[in-house]
Amino acid sequence: MPNLSDLIEDKRKLNVKPKPDLIDIDDIIPNQMNNKIRVERNLNDLKESIRENGLINPLAVYDNNDGTYQCH
Predict the structure, then answer these.
(1) CA distance 66 to 50
(2) CA gap 51, 35 in Å, rounded
(3) If you average pLDDT over residues 11-39, what whole number do you get?
(4) Chain centre to alpha carbon of residue 29
């Protein structure tokens, strides 16, 4: 049975790199665990900034498996 380091080494040999998924910015919703009003305002500001300026670094989001995503 392989141990964890063997599995990690195999992925490196295969040169596997994660590919970012392109999602619609309007599918990103506030994280329900945070202060909803503050998060919605910040998220709306972020969305507007991305629309105006583009995205420099990818966003890390959770897939809700219902067509929506939540920011970390």
Answers:
(1) 23
(2) 24
(3) 70
(4) 12
